[in-house]
Design a protein that fits this description.
Layout: E1 3-4, H1 13-32, H2 38-52, H3 55-66, H4 68-76, H5 78-83, E2 95-99, E3 104-109, H6 118-121, H7 131-139, H8 141-147, E4 157-162, E5 168-172, H9 184-188, H10 193-197
Parallel strand pairs: 1-4, 2-5, 3-4
Helix pairs in contact: 3-4, 7-8
């Protein structure tokens, strides 16, 4: 399967574990010394989990579904188009939107670490940072998708995009059938986090998350 990736080794699982341990140790030290307040950390995490994303990304996708001009802008310059909605921030400075079509399904991974568009999708899921996902998404994307419950038509290819510190990706899934009469606000509720990573599909009308 075609994929874009860094020129680096894909075996970096221990780095992620080591980094997680370092972050936890630093957080504990700073908290014990009174430099960082646990309540402040909790507030930051809650903001990214419940306010920043993935609702923001869903709003971008729903707008692309309903506004052809915005869709074209998103395709040409996702960074500017997303920024026009005031959705900017660290780890979201340089964005590229990739659009699913009947011929191609897009999927995002970061094979080196866990580069992720926090500004539009919030905190990355645990599995996104895991060694098996980071390694297998490139080697056997269809098998990974199947484990997420996504079975693609045989004629639909899969392209895997490798996020980097310089570029992060937003998958724009295909608009579900039967949604022609739905408002943009209603469409937002159909866009799942996984569908914007490429490991899932939007909900069908009437389905609940």
């Amino acid at each position: 399967m075609p994929h874009d990736h860094h020129d680096h080794d894909h075996d970096h699982g221990s780095e992620l574990d080591d980094m997680t341990a370092r972050v936890m140790a630093l957080e504990t030290l700073l908290t014990e010394k009174g430099i960082v307040q646990p309540a402040a950390l909790d507030a930051i995490i809650e903001t990214y989990e419940t306010q920043v994303g993935p609702r923001r990304g869903a709003e971008v996708v729903a707008r692309a579904w309903t506004d052809p001009d915005f869709r074209d802008w998103l395709e040409k310059d996702a960074t500017a188009a997303i920024a026009s909605m005031d959705y900017t921030g660290r780890q979201g400075e340089h964005m590229m939107a990739v659009f699913n079509t009947p011929e191609r399904h897009n999927m995002v991974v970061c094979t080196l670490c866990s580069c992720y568009p926090w500004a539009v999708l919030g905190l990355p899921p645990v599995w996104y940072k895991s060694t098996p996902y980071r390694a297998r998404a490139v080697r056997e994307p269809r098998a990974v998708l199947a484990e997420f419950g996504v079975t693609l038509p045989e004629g639909q290819s899969v392209r895997v995009w490798d996020s980097t510190a310089e570029m992060r990706y937003l998958v724009v899934p295909m608009r579900p059938e039967g949604t022609e009469a739905m408002t943009r606000e209603q469409l937002i509720d159909l866009v799942t986090r996984d569908s914007m990573i490429g490991t899932g599909l939007p909900l069908s009308p009437g389905a609940s998350a």
